[in-house]
């Protein structure tokens, strides 16, 4: 790659910023190096307009985003709507110190429980590491105590470095899907709190699980695990793909690892003639917050994430 290949044309930047504050502030921060005060001012708009404000307005007085009585495109239980909605609010970039964020998260903390697991409070988590990884991520981001849940995840790491929700059913190997959920949670916890020696070591072992497999291959045979891993999605929910893994590695300052290079090449190859990336594999188990993206069409979310991954990759390659 050349030094400036990852930088978007002005037309792509214009297309990205002609959108919602949740995209604009990340474009400004990650692709234009705007001044921090300008970025912060744009970010502050998320709580009061656009997709962020719309999603906040859908929260019920009981703390959830519907469930049970909600329409069919929504998750089916109140606690599950909270996982999906809070991940969305974190992805949008809602400032966790804002009044809107504190009010929303306090409702979840105080009123939402895991009904099928002895009504444990939401931020205590439940039994599956793929879900608990996301609870750790959103709990850490929004300033909630998830230390016991982090300890649980560390105790559930498998011999190969990964995690798997099927471990309780006899699985002895990690899962790409579960592992990326846990890694994102541990990384966010580490970013906010600094983590512990044990949690940092566990995260690095989990990261190595993905890198040893070059982000999409079986360790035993070198075969592609699943063609869907090379298809780009957003929101990702539980599901793994190479862009999600590369964005994690970007945050972990590990994109320079040569074992990520194949995934980077695949990602770069999906850029269209206008410099944009398509939504290839939407997941119907996510809340519809009205972003208006269509399968097979250019996606602002995927283009933003792809560009910042490639920009970071090239910066690291240049030293």
Summary tags:
Glycosyltransferase, globular, mainly alpha, 319 residues, two-stranded antiparallel sheet, 13 helices
Description of the molecule:
This protein has a single domain, classed as Alpha/alpha barrel (Glycosyltransferase), CATH 1.50.10. 49% of the residues lie in helices and 1% in strands. The chain has helices spanning 10-17, 21-30, 36-44, 50-57, 78-92, 99-111, 129-141, 147-155, 176-193, 197-212, 242-251, 261-269, 300-317, and strands spanning 113-114, 120-121. A hairpin with a 5-residue loop joins strand 1 (113-114) and strand 2. Helix 2 packs antiparallel against helix 3 (36-44) and helix 7 runs antiparallel to helix 8. The radius of gyration is 19 Å and the shape is globular. The two termini are 14 Å apart.
What is the topology?
Blueprint: H1 10-17, H2 21-30, H3 36-44, H4 50-57, H5 78-92, H6 99-111, E1 113-114, E2 120-121, H7 129-141, H8 147-155, H9 176-193, H10 197-212, H11 242-251, H12 261-269, H13 300-317
Antiparallel strand pairs: 1-2
Helix pairs in contact: 2-3, 2-13, 5-7, 7-8, 7-9, 9-10, 9-11, 11-13
């Amino acid at each position: 790659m050349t030094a400036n290949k990852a930088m978007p044309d002005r037309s792509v930047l214009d297309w990205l910023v002609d959108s919602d504050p949740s995209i604009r502030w990340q474009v400004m921060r990650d692709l234009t190096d705007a001044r921090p005060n300008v970025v912060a001012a744009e970010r502050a708009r998320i709580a009061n307009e656009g997709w962020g404000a719309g999603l906040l307005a859908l929260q019920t007085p009981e703390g959830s985003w519907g469930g049970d009585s909600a329409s069919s495109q929504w998750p089916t239980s109140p606690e599950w709507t909270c996982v999906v909605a809070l991940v969305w609010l974190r992805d949008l970039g809602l400032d966790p110190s804002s009044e809107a964020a504190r009010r929303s998260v306090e409702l979840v903390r105080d009123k939402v429980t895991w009904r099928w697991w002895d009504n444990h409070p939401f931020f205590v988590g439940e039994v599956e590491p793929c879900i608990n990884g996301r609870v750790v991520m959103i709990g850490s981001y929004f300033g909630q105590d998830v230390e016991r849940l982090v300890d649980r995840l560390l105790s559930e790491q498998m011999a190969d470095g990964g995690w798997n929700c099927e471990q309780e059913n006899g699985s002895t190997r990690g899962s790409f899907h579960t592992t990326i959920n846990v890694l994102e949670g541990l990384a966010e916890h580490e970013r906010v709190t600094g983590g512990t020696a044990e949690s940092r070591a566990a995260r690095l072992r989990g990261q190595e699980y993905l890198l040893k497999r070059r982000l999409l291959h079986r360790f035993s045979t070198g075969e592609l695990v699943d063609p869907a891993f090379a298809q780009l999605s957003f929101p990702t929910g539980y599901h793994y793909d190479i862009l999600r893994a590369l964005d994690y590695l970007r945050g972990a300052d590990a994109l320079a690892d040569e074992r990520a290079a194949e995934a980077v090449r695949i990602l770069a190859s999906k850029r269209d003639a206008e410099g944009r990336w398509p939504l290839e594999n939407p997941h119907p188990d996510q809340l519809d917050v009205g972003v208006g993206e269509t399968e097979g069409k250019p996606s602002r979310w995927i283009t933003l994430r792809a560009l910042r991954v490639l920009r970071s990759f090239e910066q690291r390659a240049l030293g």
